[in-house]
Amino acid sequence: MNSLPLNWLLDFGLAGVAATSLLEKFLPILPSYVLFVFIGLATVDNALDLFRTVLMASLGSTLGAAGWYFIGHVLGGSRCEDIIGRYGRFVFLRPELYHRLAAAYRRNHFWVTVIGQTIPTVRIYLALPAGILRLPLGSFLLATVIGTLAWNTPLIAIGYLLRDSGWDPVAAGIAVGLSMMGLELLVAFLVAYARRRSAGKQFS
Question: Where are the alpha helices (DSSP H) in 88-134?
Answer without folding.
Answer: 95-104, 109-116, 122-125, 127-132
